[in-house]
Amino acid sequence: MIRSRAAVCHAGGEPMTIETVDVDGPRSGEVLVEIKATGVCHTDAVILWGINRNSPLPAILGHEGAGVVVEVGPDVASLGRGDHVIPLYGAECGVCRHCLSGRTNICWGTRKTRDLGVLPEGTSRFRLGRQAIHHFMGTSTFSRYTVVPEVALAKIRPDAPLDHVCLLGCGVTTGVGAALHDTRAGDNVAVFGLGGVGVNIVQGARLAGAQRIIGIDPNPLKRRLAADFGATDLLDPSALGAELVKAVQDLTDGGVDVSFESSGEPEAMRQAFEVCCLGWGTCVLLGVEPEGSEIGVRPVMMRYGRTLKGSYFGGVKGRSQLGRYVDLFMDGKIKVAELISHVLPITEANQAFDLMRSGESLRTVLLHE
Description:
The mean pLDDT is 96. This protein has two domains: 2-169 and 336-367, Alpha-Beta Complex (Quinone Oxidoreductase, Chain A, domain 1), CATH 3.90.180; 175-311, NAD(P)-binding Rossmann-like Domain (Rossmann fold, 3-Layer(aba) Sandwich). The longest helix has 13 residues, at 318-330. By secondary structure, it is of the alpha/beta class. The chain is built from 13 helices and 18 strands. The two termini are 19 Å apart. Strand 14, helix 10 (266-274) and strand 15 form a beta-alpha-beta unit. The relative contact order is 0.16.
C-alpha cells in the first residue's frame, strides 16, 4: 500500500476535496503508476458538475495523464519499473472481438468493469479511511499514484516531456486522430466547438491537407487560437443564430465534406450534420452530451448520402498507435504547448474547473508535487 494525494469527487455539483488516500499495490495484470501531470478535460467536468451521472461516485477523476511505472503486478510482460506511460481510458487488450475485428479501436476487454468504477478484477485499489473510492475511466489521474490495467497503458519514449504529452491521453489525440481518420486532402471542413478537442481537430485537418477549415465557437479567444492552429474561416454561432447552417453552406458551395462536433451540445450536433454536403458529407460526433440527450435529423438527409457517425479517442488504438502521435509532437508537427493556458498544482484542481466553466482556459495542466 502507498499513500497518495488526490482530488476526490464525492458528489456531482459539489467541489472536489483534496485528500490523502490509500492505494493498494497492483494485482495480476495491473501496474502502479506515479502520475506526474494531468490535463483537465470536459469529460471530467460533466461528472463533477453533475451534468452526467453515469459514473459511480465517490471517485477520483482524471483521464488525461502521463507518468512513470513504479511497480508491476504478476503476469505483466510489456512494462517495467521506470517506463514512461500514458494511461488509456480506452484499453487495447488485443483478444476481444472488437480488437480482433480490425474495424475499430474500441476494446471491450475492460469496458464493463471500467464503467462500474473498478478494475477488471472487480474491486477498487483506492480507499479513504474505510471507504472504497471508485476509479474513473480506468485511469484516475487526479491521484498522484494510480493503478491501471497493463492493457490500458501506452508505453512512450522517455524523452517526451510528461507535462505536455499528458494531453495526448485525450484531447490532442482525439482531435488530431479524428481529423486524420476522416479528412481527405482538399476537403472543406467545419469544426463545431473550439475547446481542447476542437482546436486539435483543426490542426489535424491541417495536417491532412484540408482546403478550408471553418472554426465555429462563441468564444473569441478560442476562435483566435483556432486561427493559429490552421482555421481559415471563423464563425460566431451566437451572432449568426438560425443562419449558421446557411453561412457554412454559402462558404462551401452547398456544404462541407466533413464536419466535427466537439462541444457536446445537441443543437450543435444537429447543425453539424445539416452543414454536410449531399452525396458524401460526413458528420463526426466527439462531444460528450448531457445525460439523456437526443438529436433529431430528417431521414431524407441521410438517404441522400450523408453519414452521421461517432469517434472514440479519434479512432486511435492506444497501445499500438499512440506512440506515433508522440513522435508527431516531438517532431514539431503537432502543437501542444500552445494549448496549455494554465498550470496549477493538484491542490488547485477545483480552480481549474472554474477556469473551464468561465471560458478563461483552453487546457489546464495539473502537476502532482
